[in-house]
Amino acid sequence: MHILFVEDHIGDVVDHVEFCSDVCHTQWCMWVEDVVKKLSSAEVEHKITDYDLPEIGIVPREVVIKARQGKGLYEGWNGCNEASTSTLCNACDEVIEGLDEGLAPAERDKFIQELREISQRSQDEDEAYILNVLYDLKCQIE
Q1: How far is CA 99 from CA 1, 6, 95, 126, in A?
Q2: pTM for this structure?
């Protein structure tokens, strides 16, 4: 698993973002930087909670502030990490299989299947969103 560590203003790690690959890690950082460039200063400076950015999802506040300051989010390859539990990639929603300690094999298989179903629903929702945007654009052109 690849991880982007999120640090506060004094350098303490306060959160992290998980990815299935370095490609997803890099791409997510670029997406966030592009979206944040479009936010006004007031939208960034005065918000005290995490951000729900369009087409990206929940992004830690510290990441948005760093991107707004023009500091690159991607700080290099960080992919030699072990996940204690299975989770979804924050960029592509693919399942990142972890150790799932404490789960019997049947429970682990069920948990991973549930994650895959969540991933598929998320991808279907993304596809529906894209189709709605394309329909809106078509209506505007006509």
Answers
A1: 12, 23, 13, 29
A2: 0.73
Chain segment 97-110, per-residue pLDDT in tens:
888 878 888 888 88
Domain segments of the chain: what residues? 1-142
- In order, the DSSP letters of 26-61 are HHHHHHHHHHHHTS-HHHHHT--S-EEETTTEEE-H
Hey, what amino acid is at 89? Answer: C
